[in-house]
Write a structure and sequence with these properties.
It is built from eight helices and five strands, in the order βαβααβαβαααβα. By secondary structure, the protein is of the alpha/beta class. It has a single domain (about 5-175), classed as 3-Layer(aba) Sandwich (Rossmann fold). The chain has a five-stranded parallel beta sheet, with helices on both faces. The longest helix has 17 residues, at about 160-175. Residues about 45-60 have low confidence and may be disordered.
Length: about 180
């Protein structure tokens, strides 16, 4: 499968703002997919409820997400997919999409914890999840740190919505010029 659509892939730790950005892009008329909708085993909320060990399952389903997005939106020039977490996923999408753009969404820890508290999420659970997704545990196949470090674009989502939207606009303008 190869596509002529530009595909924006969002990557970032929990509560960094990936969903906020995906929602803003949807508001601008850009179709989107969330990889969690295709996860074969468990969602983030279920992982929090049932325990960490269930969440670290294979994420090879990224191919299903890419193929579903391309199949559904064959005439679209731009598609957004949330979220990549492994270097192997980045390699896969770069091999399948002619124009894949990985956008790292970063946010300082204090702001992320504030957002998690507002959502009534467990801070301790997400600290363990951060370590696993950063590849800092022996049982992790994730390495989102590498994904973030090798991204094409970075969005700092520690500030105002206006600042966030300006960054999104800059990236969209840059992608459309390519």
């Amino acid at each position: 499968m190869s596509t002529k659509s530009d595909i924006i892939f969002l990557a970032g730790l929990p509560a960094s703002g990936k969903t906020t950005i995906r929602s803003e892009l949807e508001r601008r008329g850009i179709p989107s997919y969330y990889t969690g909708d295709f996860h074969p085993n468990i969602t983030g909320e279920e992982a929090e409820r049932y325990g960490d060990e269930h969440f670290d399952s294979d994420s090879g389903f990224i191919c299903q997400v890419v193929e579903a997005a391309v199949d559904e939106y064959t005439d679209e020039s731009l598609i957004v997919i949330e979220a990549l977490r492994k270097p192997a996923e980045v390699s896969y999408v770069r091999s399948r999409a002619e124009t894949a753009h990985v956008v790292a969404v970063v946010c300082d820890r204090a702001e992320r914890e504030k957002r998690l508290k507002q959502r009534k999420k467990s801070i301790e659970f997400h600290k363990r999840r951060d370590q696993r997704e950063l590849g800092n545990t022996s049982d992790s196949s994730f390495d989102i740190g590498h994904v973030i470090a090798t991204s094409d674009y970075f969005i700092d989502n520690s500030h105002s919505f206006e600042y966030l939207y300006d960054q999104i606009e800059y990236i969209l303008d840059d992608i459309r010029q390519v």
